[in-house]
Amino acid sequence: AMKLTPAFFHEKPTRQLLERASAVLGVPLSIHGNNDWHITGWGGCAACAWVNKQEKGKKYCRASRQEFKDVVKQQNSPVTFVCHMGCTCVIAAVTLDENYILTLGPYIPDTDTTKTKSTVEKSLAALNKSHQDGSGLPFTLDDIRTVPQGSIRAGAEWILEGLRALLNDPSRDDALDSEADLISQDSEPVSSLKHVKGRRPAGATVEVS
Q1: Taking a C-beta distance cutoff of 8 angstroms, is the pair 47, 120 a contact?
Q2: Which pLDDT belongs to residue 88?
Q3: What's the pLDDT at 176?
Q4: Cα separation of 40 and 11, whole Å?
Q5: DSSP string, the chain
Q6: What pLDDT score was predicted for residue 193?
Q7: d(CA 1, CA 140)
Q8: CA distance 61 to 148
Q9: Which of 8, 39, 59, 157 has the greatest CB tally within 10 Å of its CB?
């Protein structure tokens, strides 16, 4: 097996796998490396964005991940946990001998939809954020998906299998070499059918197979 480096997560096949997985599961996905360095990710939610802007919130968020990092490496399977804000996430080690961590979430398991809002309100109090107008949360929870219990964990297992298969794929070296060759050619890009087909109004994304 090849040694895992941050570059692996930026390679085209890896990006496609992770992007598709995030889209299928409908929850945010992120990869962290050594010292909780954020390497890449897809999706997000208002709650996490707000919490990570608070110094204390960011610290708690990181501590939530660190707490389960050793556990997932020991048992070699994804772990479902409730973060400091009361949201559910799944965490997994990409490989056992490296510090690369996959996190999926937050999401709300369909078994406890009613509890989450009150838990999040209590967790906010722990961040010492009182709301003068008493109108509740400073962010919406509407973009946090409610999903069947167990589906995100199953998704994490599937992603790990895909990542490990890519990592151990012997043809990967050849593909990388040819990709590097293409990048190093300074010539004008040839207008291929792919480019012509891909022209769309600005802002529209196009899937080119």
Answers
A1: yes
A2: 93
A3: 67
A4: 11
A5: -PPP-GGGGGSHHHHHHHHHHHHHHTS-EEEE-GGG-EEEEE---HHHHHHHHSHHHHHHHHHHHHHHHHHHHHHTS-EEEE-TTS-EEEEEESSTTS--EEEEEEEEETT-HHHHHHHHHHHHHHTT---TT----SS-STTSPEE-TTHHHHHHHHHHHHHHHHHT-TTHHHHHHHHHHHHH--SPPP--HHHHHT--STT------
A6: 42
A7: 43
A8: 24
A9: 8
Q: Among all chains, which residue has been given the structure tokens 């406890």?
A: 112
What are the 10-residue block averages of pLDDT along the chain, 209 residues in total? 86 96 95 93 91 88 89 90 90 91 93 76 73 65 89 96 93 68 49 42 50
Phi, psi of 45 (to 5 degrees): -145, 160
Tokens matching residue 19: 């992007």
- 136's tokens: 């509740």
pLDDT at residue 171, as a whole number? 83
Residues 148-167 pLDDT 10s? 989 999 999 999 999 999 99
